[in-house]
Each structure stands twice: as C-alpha cells, then as structure tokens.
Amino acid sequence: MAQSIRGGIDLGGTKIQTVIVDESQKVLGSARAATPTGGGPADVAAAMAGALREATKAAGLKDTAALAGIGVGSPGAVDEKAGTVSGAGNLPDWAGTFPLGPTLSKDLGVPVAIGNDVQVATDAELLLGAGREVSSLIGVFWGTGVGSGIMLDRRPWLGRGAAGELGHTVIKLGGARCPCGRRGCVEAYAGRGALEARARKRDSEGKATDLFKLMEKHDRTRLTSSIWARALDQKDGLARELIDDAIEALGAGIASAINLLDLEMVVIGGGLGVRLGQPYVERIELAMRPHLFVDDRPPDVRLAELGDLGGAIGAALLVDKTLH
Amino acid sequence: MAQSIRGGIDLGGTKIQTVIVDESQKVLGSARAATPTGGGPADVAAAMAGALREATKAAGLKDTAALAGIGVGSPGAVDEKAGTVSGAGNLPDWAGTFPLGPTLSKDLGVPVAIGNDVQVATDAELLLGAGREVSSLIGVFWGTGVGSGIMLDRRPWLGRGAAGELGHTVIKLGGARCPCGRRGCVEAYAGRGALEARARKRDSEGKATDLFKLMEKHDRTRLTSSIWARALDQKDGLARELIDDAIEALGAGIASAINLLDLEMVVIGGGLGVRLGQPYVERIELAMRPHLFVDDRPPDVRLAELGDLGGAIGAALLVDKTLH
C-alpha cells in the first residue's frame, strides 16, 4: 500500500492544484481550479474534490476509488490527527475550524491526510527537488502570502507547531501595514495580496498602470501571478516599482533568516516565485547580499525545481507518511 | 577527570570574566579584568591569563596547575580543534588568526578548550540557568554587540558554523549604519558599541546629556553598562531615548526570530541585559508583542539566571566536553 497511486491537493489562496502520482512520485495527471472567493469552507472543499476528480480522469483512472489515499497541503493551523483546518485567513469565511479531511474523505471515498501547505512543499523540494543534496534549507513560498518551511539536518523544524513565518519578519519598523494587521512585515511588501492592495491604492490615486487593464483583458478578478508577469514584461512602471519593493523586502527577510540559521540553501517557490522564475530568483539573491553577515559563502539560492506542482506532490507524500 | 575543578574565561569586548568551578559547577572564585583596548591578541591573552590566576587565588587554590583544564568563550570565528580565533572585530588588532588556546595553555600550564562565547553562555543557561526545563530557546546577549545562541531539542544549532547572528537581523531597511558596515541591523540600534557612537554624535551636536560626565566621574573611558544604568536611573533624556530605540530594535528582531522558529523561551543576557535586569527584560517582552505572528502564546522571556558569570561558567563546561 505504501507504494501505490495517490492524489495530492495544494490548497492556495488563489488556486487549487491537484495531482495524481505513482509510486515513484511521477505525475500521472493534474488539474487546477480557482479557489472560491465567496461561500465558505464547504464550497472550498467541493472545489477541491472537483479538481481532484479531474486530475484522476486526466491520469486515466476510472475514479478516485483507485487511489490509496489523498494528501492535502493547507494554509492555516492544521490538526493532522483530526483532519481539521482553522484560521485560514486567505480563504473565504474560514476563521473558525472546519473538518476538511473528513469532508473530503466522505466525498471522495478514500482516506485523506492533511498537512501544512508550506511544509509539504518544502518536504517535496528537499526529497525530490532543488534540495536533494543539502542538509539544511529554507523553502520560501512567494504567493498570496509569504510562507516558509525550514529543514534542519533534513528534518522539518516546526517549533511549537507554527514555525516558518518568514513573511512576518519585520524588515521595516513602522513600515507598511501587513494583511496580518501588523506593520513592516516582509509580506506587507511582497505578498500578492498586499501587492494587489498597494496597486489598487496607487491606481485609485491616479498612478498610470496597465495592471488592471491586463487583469480585465485576461478575464481575471485578481492580479494573478500571470498578470504581474505580463505587466513586468511590458515594463509597466507601477508593477516594476512594487515588485522592486517586494524583492528588497524578500532579500532582507531571507538574509536575516540566513544570519540567524546559517543554512546551506534557499529555495524560492510559490505562485509568484515560480511564475517569475529564475531571473527573479537571481534578483532576490542579489537583494540578500548586502545584508548577509557572513558574506564570503552565501547560501545557494535556487528556484523550486518542482515548480507549480511541488505543493501538490508534497501533499501526496503525506499519504505514505500519515495514513500507512 | 571529568568531575574536577576547572577554569572558565568569558572574553568580551569590554571585560574579561573568569571563574573557577567545582564538579557541580559551583563557583569557587572569580575575577574580572578590563579587555585591553590597545595592543593586540597577545596582550589580550596576557590579560586573560592574569584574570584567571586571580580567580584561582580567590578560589583558595595554590596555582593553575590544580585545574583539570580551562575553557574559553571567545568572540570571532573559533576553530575548536586548532584553538585559534579569527576576525574578532571588537578586540584590538584581531582581524587575523591568533592561536589563543595554545598561547594560554603554555602560559597557564593546563589544557585549554575554546568555543564561541555566545554559544557557551547559551549552553550554560540551558543546562544550569533559565532554560533548564524547556527544549528550545534563543539566548540573546545584549552587550558590546548583540549575539545569540539557538538551542533546538536541547542541542545547539550552529548551521554551517556561523548561526546566531540575531544582531544582524534587518529591522529597518535603509536604517542606521551598523558597526558591521551594513544598515538597519538590530545591533545598529542596540549594541553598546553602536549606542556609544550614537551618544557621542548627539553629544557633539549639542544634545544635553550626563552620559559622558558620568563616564568621567566613574573613571571610565567607555560608556559601560553601569554608566548606561546610572544615566537611566537619573532619567537622562538622551540615554532614555537611545535605550528606547534599542529595546524597540531588540523587540522586533527577537519577535522575527520567534515568528521563524516558534521557540519556547527567550533568555536575555549580556553585559547590558544583565546590568539593566528584569524591568528591561519586561520592556523587551512588551516590545516583541506587536510583532508576534502567533500572539496568543508568546514565548517565555527571562533574564539570564547565571547573570554576568554565565559565559565563564559555560566556558568551563567546555573542558569536560572537549578535553576529556
């Protein structure tokens, strides 16, 4: 059973990514859905189940009963035993606790294991991706928010359960308001949620930008990673300015983490990180440099090798770890 | 041999603290000397040997031959095997590599083990001090600089050898110049070296302060921790303003470390930390609060229990670990 076909679901603030993988973690099929922006946890769970069924079909399987289990990487506070998720602030009406595991398991008819979204994506990069040959790394997931997973001696460091909040490193005392309510966090400058809020404010103040025209043209309701990438490609002034600030904030925050932990590698993933890709990973690396205390042997800074699918593949790894 | 009388030396940027401890780490004698501000590493080593001899006498021992060994906690990059120290920037003319262990061993006639000053002080707090009952903590040493030692699952986390540079967490992008040459680090606001430079600048610009009068009155050439404490006691405006900034910087930097690592405890030590004591530990705790991402279960924040002697006691612990 530990070597069978499994499903993985990466639940993000913007999209739901699903995969079906075989015993060697090869992706047999995948599907993606937009994360519902309204409704509540039950609607999100229904969208997740729908996307997983699509991936099952794409993998050439008859139905989800063919799966040994499904793993889910979720934001918020995850109770792995109970299968519940609490306080997932970037998801609609999800301040309380919702039994995501039991709900999906009932819907899809197979066992479901839940873990932290960022940690499962970091696990996947360490086991199968950019971090295969190092013993310590931080995975930085630059998306709707900025999360991180820390691996020390090839094991996750979770602290009292909530480690990895690199996005809430203070890089500017008294600085910009963060979606978390505090001031001057990395995420206040770099999270896609905060970036969109800043762009909307500047746009409403009359700053010229094509960001929102591009959004409408491509039939989106949010500034997705693709919209940012397109705006940067066409040298949109506001997009460049805000992404410059984001990179500066990420560079300072990641360098501070390296000064504290002296890790071998930084892996950059997440929706924005993966979409903007290698040139922006190099810009983050350059932005770290001025702040590194030991500056003659900087850590290796790499793009997440598993790309967009890393979170879902990492989630699928939970099946063997947790359910068997 | 592992249960015998040992010496410990804590080499700081301002003072050299020595102790003689028995098998249960009880302090039998201690002595302190000012760290030479001129000369070079050989002069510092001679001052260390002199202070250790004094402590030996204070312990009622005939001479250092009665010791099983001596441990040294040193700033800079320590090569434990070779007994060398390199790049100790806060010590006079110590940019290169000096064989501190062999030099002291030859002078004092007993084996000498060398470790990182901050790490040995953190070890001592975990084993014998405030951290006896927790499994993870960060020891923050607020003195000439701001250093830290990290204990995870009751073991030191050293990274690639240089972990613990909490003092170089960036808390204000583009902020004050740090003694390390970078900008906006915690130490740029909180280190005693930086505090003195800021005070001198403000004094030369005509800002009213008694800091330098107190320094002369007490026959010092630097703004020592005691001078800062006296100035604060008499409500000196500049001293209060600069220490307020220092506490704000420490609060943001420590909170960022907690957001990243979710540790159980913060132990505040170091020359300034110990001299200013519990009321200032409480102020640091309050300054952390607004930045803690998980704010309903903050870490325990404690004053170093071993006080001024923690570094030297921790250094003495090296003898059993390293030499036997």
Q: How would you characterize the overall build of this protein?
A:
The structure is a homodimer of 324-residue chains. The N and C termini of chain A lie close together (7 Å). Chain A has 11 helices and 13 strands. The mean pLDDT of chain A is 95. In chain A, strand 5 (77-79) and strand 6 (84-86) form a beta hairpin. Chain A folds into 2 domains: 6-117 and 309-323, 2-Layer Sandwich (Nucleotidyltransferase, domain 5), CATH 3.30.420.40; 130-305, ATPase, nucleotide binding domain (Nucleotidyltransferase, domain 5). The first copy, chain A, is of the alpha/beta class and 324 residues long. In chain A, helix 7 (225-233) runs parallel beside helix 9 (270-276). In chain A, strands 3-2-1-4-8 form a 5-stranded mixed sheet. Chain A has helices at 41-58, 100-108, 117-128, 186-190, 192-204, 211-217, 225-233, 237-261, 270-276, 278-288, 310-323; strands at residues 6-11, 15-21, 27-34, 70-74, 77-79, 84-86, 97-98, 112-116, 137-142, 146-152, 155-156, 265-269, 300-303. Chains A and B meet through strand 10 and helix 8 of A and strand 10 and helix 8 of B.
